[in-house]
Amino acid sequence: MIQVLGGIESTSAALASERVRMDVISQNIANATTMSGPDGRPYQRQQVVFESVLRDRLPAGGAGLAGATAVRVARVEADPRAPRTIYDPLRGPVEVPNINVHEEMADLISASRAFEANLAVLKTARSMAVQTLALGKR
Amino acid sequence: MIDALFNQPNYVAAKRMLDATAARMEAVASNLANVETPNYRRIDLPRAFEKQLQEAVRSGDVHALRNLRPQLQPDPNAAAVRPDGNTVDLESEMVEMYRASMEHGLETQLITGRLLKLRMAITGRPT
Amino acid sequence: MNAIPVLPPVTGSLGTLQVAPEARVPREIPVPELQPLPWAGAAVQPGSTAAPAPFGEVLSRMVGEINDRQVAAADKVQGLLGGREVSLHETMIALEEASVSFQLMVEVRNKLLESYQELMRMQV
């Protein structure tokens, strides 16, 4: 694999991870009021578990990246917390998904910023590579 | 003998600066990829490297310039920006990235300029 | 120091010319010592008594250096394509420097050929 810019694999890993995270959060928000899913139970909040993967190859240019890690989605798991119970005047106590929409939105924003930042890294790396390829030419 | 063509201090300095810029860009890529990783410490070129580079450029010491090698390492001065110990500040990394991008443009232009001048001196023709 | 001798001011039948002292040209004009070019005189130290390296040797050394550069550049390209620790800018610079060196060799060859042909055209 030609190293256009050392460290670009972490960037693509981060983009993928943040994408999964945004999808999961969107799903949580969309189902914040789903009180009866396919199994009859309220929607259970999903969360993403990240893990750090140590990069197994040194980056190009011998810059000697110390402790190079890439982030990866280990799994998407159900939030272990039980659904909330609210009191509906018509039907009595009802279980609803334990989803705080404000929290989810804040999470979504930070995932989105991380995604955009890594996208900017890709674009900048590409334009730098184009400039490098034109080295020495009029 | 041919080395003398490429041993001019400014040219060697531009090449070293390009190495440093490429290293910085790698650091930014790694830092931003790990902006959400718990306990990740941001990496960068050591501050001393900047000073060494400037000193070598000022003194015009080609030998010193040749021996400068940029090495990325965890930044000891970075403060934790999140409770999980992550020290990556997204905005400052973006600023670093745009700075590196502009410096990259400058350095490639300097190097290209020198190479084109050499070609003109050799052949007598502009290209 | 090579000095250019200067004729003394002329006096004679025209009567003595009153020439202001500061208008006189100094008796000897010093000529600055010519320094050998650093790369051409690589084999010659200023002031040494050894004969300069024959031009053929200088040329073959130059060709050897240029060839080394081409090989090093090709090696870098292989490294880059093979995923070794070679960066893109390192490779591009090595390629360009090898190309400039090669161009130098070609021009030297052309000039030598021209001079040879010029020499051959000379009427004896």
Q: What profile does the largest beta sheet of chain C have?
A: 2 strands, antiparallel
By helix and strand content of chain C, what is the structural category? Answer: mainly alpha
Helix content of chain C: 40-55%
Enumerate the spans of chain C where pLDDT stays under 50 for 5 or more consecutive residues.
Answer: 10-17
Major interchain interface with per-chain residue totals? A-B, 43 and 41 residues
Oligomer: heterotrimer
Radius of gyration over C-alpha positions of chain B, nearest whole angstrom = 18 Å
Q: Would you give an account of this structure?
A:
The complex is a heterotrimer of chains A (138), B (127) and C (124). Chain A has 138 residues and is an alpha+beta fold. Chain A is built from two helices and four strands. A two-stranded antiparallel ribbon of chain A has the order 1-2. Chain A has a two-stranded antiparallel sheet with strand order 3-4. In chain A, helix 1 (8-30) packs antiparallel against helix 2. The longest helix of chain A is centred in the C-terminal third of the chain and has 33 residues, at 101-133. The model of chain A is unreliable at 58-64 (pLDDT under 50). In chain B, strands 1-2 form a two-stranded antiparallel ribbon. Chain B is elongated and about 65 Å long. Chain B has one domain. The mean pLDDT of chain B is 91. Chain B has four helices and two strands. Chain C contains two helices and two strands; from the N terminus they run ββαα. Chain C has helices spanning 55-81, 88-121, and strands at 3-5, 28-30. Chain C is elongated. Chains in contact: A-B, A-C, B-C.
